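Q: Sequence in, structure out?
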Amino acid sequence: MPAPKNTFKAALKEGTTQIGCWVGLADPYAVEITARAGFDWLLIDGEHCPNDLRSITAQLQVVDGLGPHAIVRPPAGEAWMIKQFLDAGAQTLLVPMVESADQARALVAAVTYPPRGIRGVGSALARASHFAGIPDYLATADDEICLIVQIENRAGLSALDEILLVEGIDAVFVGASDLAADLGHIGQSTHPEVQAAADGALRKIVEAGLPAGYLTGDMAVAEHVLALGATFVATALDVTAFAATMRRLAQQGQALKQRR
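A: Exactly. Output:
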């Protein structure tokens, strides 16, 4: 029996558009609500949200079987972190702040077993292998791992041509928020200079034959990047959606009080 099929990776290879949600509430109960909402994929964020290995593992367990594919973003592209998240059952990783082809090659090595890579062999202890319940896991796992590198600053943009040539990368994600900050427009991810730089990166990625990803809560921007050829786009963030809804409801309630 081989490793479970990575349906998200297969969809990217087929060029099928995938719409996702950024998940940052760091809670299994909350992620279940989002997983039942109808998205194609969820990004469980370990970089900017209060997640650790245990909380991410719990969320992976909840999402399993509910429909959307769970992607994990580790805090950084450290090999020891990557090993733990893969063993916990993540089949798709989005690694932040990739700035060079050498870094991209190191990430490819981190997600693959020897002799090709350096991923440690501890599958008998791992949820990923169903705790040694998948006899062919070691022989088939590499094919089902999906590595997404995130380009989000000027260094990454400068190295993008070389990064796109690295064998073993499955997709490239353009991070507009950090790119905006690095370009001198912090908090303005839709600034014309930022959007132009992001658009140029998306075009390069698509022209290289790799799936391109993006995050935006602006549906007009989402439509724009999809028209440029982006394959996987997150159109919502659970934290901001929850916060905005609660503020609106509180304001409506306070308005009732003021009318008394």
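The chain has a mean pLDDT of 97.
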